[in-house]
Amino acid sequence: MLDRKLLRENFDEVCKTIRSRNKEYKQLDTFREIDKKYRKLITSIQNLNSEINSKTKEISSLIKEQEDKKVDQIKFEVRKIKSELENLENQKKIIEEKFDEILYSIPNIPDKSVIIGKDETNNECIHYYGTPTKFDFIPLPHWEIAKKIKLYDGERATKIAGSRYILYTGAGAKLIRALCAFTLDMNTSAGFYELLPPVIINPNALYGTGQLPKFEEDLYKLTEGNYLSPTGEVQMTNFYAGEILSYKDLPIRFTCNTSCFRSEAGSAGKDVKGVIRQHQFYKTEMVIIAKPDESWKEHEFMTRQAEKILEALNLPYRRILLCTGDMGFSAAKTYDLEVWLPSYNSYKEISSCSNCTDFQARNMKLRYRDKDEKINFCHTLNGSGLAIDRLWAAVVENYQQKDGSIKIPERLQRYFDGQKFIK
Questions:
Q1: Under a CB-based contact definition with an 8 Å cutoff, are residues 332 and 21 in contact?
Q2: Which of 18, 204, 210, 248 has a C-alpha 20 to 30 A away from that of 219?
Q3: Is the bond preceding 292 in cis, omega lying within 30 degrees of 0?
Q4: 360-383, pLDDT tens digit by residue?
């Protein structure tokens, strides 16, 4: 949620920056209209309260002077003013609810370092690592490799759960488990504190990180009103929701691996083959809670950590700076990491690392007390480290061999008791 005061006092500048996301956001104009009414209302409420205070003092004086008739008259006037005041307070409550509705629907302000652009075609590639994998044979996509050596069973997954679910089997399941463990090991070695959170979460947590109300159609809602988590970011960022931390404890770095659930509304026809876009998937996530003056350094640290995992597996990737028109709702700045997938003959997103500044912290009242005892909002950051199913596909495709086997990356062999190939 944006700072209402910031929006009010810097309306034109904030609107211009937000609209650089390539959307009109007409609710910003609605905000300005009702804000004018709100400020007039506040002035009227203040004046009526002042009038009540004045008449209350007058009543006290008249009681001492035994002016009973005048006292009764002024008491009658006070009752009328209080009735009017109650009406104005109700109007104020309605407008404040409308403010929240509007502010929940407006995205974060892009940082000045973000490129102004329309969509993904305006993103900027920051750097490449490695070169696309070369083969002396015609490589197969991961779904064909999986079928040949029984790494997963898509047909039985569909029988059990429906389309866009995967049932990993045998060495395929073991590879998923190895990648979950490896990414967590990498993150904890870098100083991230490991959590294992529940995957059922309440609406407040989703409002806190900005998934609600904007992305409700992408969520799985349960009968009792809770939801299945779309990303471990939600649970970890909400860990200290409503609390006031000490500046001495910041930054706090969390990591977890969970099952994640998304309905993939609006993605019909996209990535229907293989494991790239599923309703249930695995993800190792990172979250950092930081002081505002350290959050940009932490953003680079987090992104670099995700890159180190790809480099440890010797997978070609590139880092992309997203433009304003392609950024996520809560993000002020985002780097995407894209791994090389031979089946696409292209790079595919495997991590998105964002600095959300104080946008989420305002929603969840996540604050810290600084050296001068002043209370400020924290900055929150999140990033995939990494999307496990996509990492699985990248390993299977980039490490496939001419004889149909898969070479196990050296750093993963310890999870396979030293085994070097999956056959």
A1: no
A2: 18
A3: no
A4: 999 999 999 999 999 999 999 999
Q: What is the pLDDT of residues 72-109, one digit of tens each?
A: 787 888 889 999 999 999 999 999 999 999 999 999 99
What is the sign of the dihedral through the CA atoms of 161, 166, 172 and 174?
negative
Q: How far is CA 76 from the centre of its chain?
A: 54
What's residue 66's pLDDT? 60
Segment 397-413 mean pLDDT: 97
| Rounded distance between C-alpha atoms, residue 134 and residue 299, angstroms | 33
Give pLDDT tens digits for 136-156. 999 999 999 999 999 999 999
pTM assigned to the model? 0.92
